């Protein structure tokens, strides 16, 4: 009888131990920083780099892909809690992917910071090829009413916002976090190219002719690839109409992704990081159609350098947050006194 009792106790102990082990194995990954790119050109490494490749090569070459139901591409995580994925281009594509990832029980995003990153366009009066920009505001280019210019008074705007979208057409990103990002990325040696330098000379604007630098301003989200001075002016008008900073970046995803994150975790830990690979309009000697469909050899240079610049700038912030996690875990710390 004693042997039976001892055997029973041993079996129960083994069962409890197994359950504890399975529970430990099932614990979700605590995400410290999530890097969201929108597209990759080919493989994650070893070929022409798109938006994800430099991030992947820095953080996840030794990480196994994790398939998430409903997401476009796998999620990768390293042992430091830095995770990332390619979400897809456009509002619907990217927001559906981030929703699936945030709801995956294998991850805990409750304390995560988000870097929404990719390439973009810029008005030549506000930026240049190779610039890297931290978004201060995210504005949805749509969610309103538009009409043909000939149907209104000459020179007047052809857009008015639609009522009912006030809470998700405009997001101010955490100013303290933006200032941290600017501070940490100051002094990064940004890449440039001879092709980009030559292309800039087609534009008379001082900013368009400048060397690449780290900037801040409003990122305008729209599925439409709007081009030309008229629509660029309209984007600036919308930014000012909403009380945001100057429009400096045109992109396709950030406002939509931010809305998804906001509904679960708020916006205090979101960063929008974009690199300018094109101008949002042609130079004075070409039409908008010529700018959209350039002749062979007439495209803007600097794409390869810009995607590298994005990672060089963003990694400064990611690495700092992870290295000083006790200070960042519960929220964005105050900036140190100057």
TrEMBL record:
SUPFAM superfamilies documented for this protein: Purine and uridine phosphorylases (SSF53167)
UniProt signal peptide: 1-26
Keywords for the protein's UniProt record, in alphabetical order: Signal
InterPro entries: Nucleoside_phosphorylase_sf (IPR035994), Pur_nuclsid_perm (IPR009486)
Presence of the UniProt keyword Cell inner membrane in the record: no
Single annotated GO MF: catalytic activity
Keyword Signal: yes
GO BP of this protein: nucleoside metabolic process; transmembrane transport
Database matches in Pfam families: NUP
The protein's name: Purine nucleoside permease
